[in-house]
Specification:
The complex is a heterodimer of chains A (188) and B (269). With 188 residues, chain A is α+β, with helices and mostly antiparallel strands. Chain A has 2 domains: 140 residues, GAF domain (Beta-Lactamase, 2-Layer Sandwich), CATH 3.30.450; 34 residues, no CATH class. Chain A is built from 6 helices and 6 strands, in the order H-E-E-E-H-E-H-E-E-H-H-H. The longest helix of chain A is centred in the last third of the chain and has 32 residues. Chain A starts with a helix and ends in a 5-residue tail after the last helix. Chain B has 269 residues and is an alpha/beta fold. The mean pLDDT of chain B is 91. Classes of the chains: A alpha+beta (188), B alpha/beta (269). At the A-B interface, helix 2, strand 4, strand 5 and helix 4 of A face strand 11 and helix 5 of B.
């Protein structure tokens, strides 16, 4: 988030993640002039600007938001900050839309360019990869904390892998990847 | 002995006579000069269109997609737009083709975000209705839908429905804009709503105005937006203008007319 804010010299940046089970957007992370008290806030997935970007899979930029107080309030309620301009891009990883990245208020007097749109798209694809990893880690944590996995067994396995020579460790990792593919095949 | 319908005995050449005169050079004046889009039916497959927005005017019909047994049905809908995207696209269309008739099929904001099936059902229905132009400022990243989208896009193409779709300027595979039977649109940054550039390096085929576009926004207001979503209805509107003057043109020919009237074609700057 801080990287997104810095790249675009913006006042704030935020991420919404899509909760597929409830079909809601969850305010996940924020940098800059926004209130992190809103983290965890949920909104219906197809409303507001974030919803628009999520469902159309299309990035967009909005300017002169101050002209529309109703809209500014709408964004403010979702970000804790009233912007005059906003860039939003879907976080797409493989075939899924994981969420939406928003960059609020780039530096004053700078017109938005198509090159920035491409940069935003590239940045979002990197962010989506990171988010996918984060989600995977969260799922793993939830499974471990839920007691569904023998933690000691996993730790033992990790220690055993760590102790192997490089070639054998790679073979062990391949075996584990194959096991994951069997137990948790990718979603169709 | 009768021959299959896709054969052409020389004695039946009269059956396929196509009475359409082409000018020596297709230019903007021939293509859409004086046209207002009258008589052309344009479908906006999107999040709905807000009824009676001053920049949109009358919406002929509004439909939405609802669950029906194992599948979906298309039913009449109120003129609502929960997120604003469809209204924005409709405003761009109306500004360029003021007399076209606008039809809305709401496939976004139906409460089934994750389901590309809603999108496909809406598109299938729209193709069956034989609209002249369908505007799709959206795409799906689900590869399992690509085959069906391909089939629907081909049905539209042979059924004389011009399907205009937003290109994706992100490094992902998405559809239907990549299909050759649709007209795919990216953005240029100039302030001329009729200015079109043909891309010699597809899959994006045309660039239209997509930066700092003042679009209709729900609540009767406007908003300044940038994105391929807004470039796309510019091209849909140009297609409507061409078809209003030359209703006999096929999607292939409409695409050719767009190409021939693009600012970078034929030595123009």
């Amino acid at each position: 988030m801080t990287a997104a804010q810095a790249i675009f010299r913006a006042q704030a940046a935020s991420i919404f993640l899509h909760d597929e089970e409830t079909d809601e957007l969850v305010f996940e992370a924020v940098a800059g002039q926004s209130s992190d008290a809103l983290i965890g806030t949920r909104i219906p997935s197809s409303t507001g600007i974030a919803g628009w970007v999520l469902v159309t899979r299309q990035p967009l930029v909005l300017e002169d938001l101050g002209n529309d107080p109703r809209f500014a309030r709408d964004v403010a309620e979702r970000t804790g900050y009233v912007p005059s301009a906003l860039m939003a891009v879907p976080l797409l990883h493989e075939e899924r839309a994981l969420g939406v990245l928003q960059v609020l208020d780039r530096e004053q007097d700078e017109r938005f360019t198509l090159a920035e749109m491409d940069l935003l798209g590239l940045f979002a694809s990197q962010a989506a990869i990171a988010l996918d990893l984060l989600r995977g880690a969260r799922r793993a944590k939830a499974i471990v904390e839920g007691g569904a996995v023998d933690v000691a067994l996993v730790a033992e396995l990790a220690a055993a892998l760590e102790g192997l020579e490089e070639e054998r460790r790679e073979a062990g990792l391949q075996l584990l990847r194959a096991l994951v593919a069997v137990l948790a095949p990718p979603r169709p | 002995m009768s021959l299959p319908a896709w054969s052409l005995p020389s004695g039946e050449l009269g059956r396929i006579a196509i009475e359409h005169e082409w000018p020596e050079r297709v230019d903007a004046e021939w293509a859409f000069g004086g046209s207002t889009g009258a008589g052309v039916r344009v479908c906006v497959l999107d999040s709905g269109i807000e009824g009676d927005h001053p920049l949109v005017g009358a919406v002929q019909q509004s439909f939405t997609v609802v669950p029906d047994g194992d599948g979906h049905a298309v039913v009449e809908d109120e003129g609502v737009d929960l997120c604003g995207h469809g209204t924005a696209c409709a405003g761009v269309l109306r500004a360029l083709a003021p007399d076209c008739s606008l039809h809305s099929v709401r496939v976004l904001g139906t409460g089934y975000t994750g389901s590309g099936d809603v999108l496909l059902s809406g598109l299938r229905w729209a193709v069956e209705q034989g609209f002249d132009v369908i505007n799709m400022s959206l795409s799906t990243t689900k590869s399992k839908f690509s085959a069906v989208l391909h089939e629907l896009a081909d049905s539209a193409y042979f059924g004389r429905t011009v399907l205009v779709a937003s290109a994706h300027n992100m490094p992902v595979e998405s559809y239907p804009w990549r299909l050759s039977s649709v007209i795919s649109v990216g953005s240029h940054d100039q302030d001329d709503p009729r200015l079109l550039y043909a891309n010699p390096a597809p899959p994006v085929e045309f660039f239209a105005r997509g930066v700092d576009v003042d679009v209709a926004w729900p609540g009767g207001s406007t908003l300044r937006c940038t994105g391929n979503s807004f470039a796309t209805p510019h091209v849909s509107a140009l297609c409507a203008l061409v078809l209003a003057k030359h209703p006999q043109l096929t999607p292939f020919q409409v695409k050719s007319v767009l190409y021939l009237t693009s600012a970078n074609v034929g030595g123009a700057s």
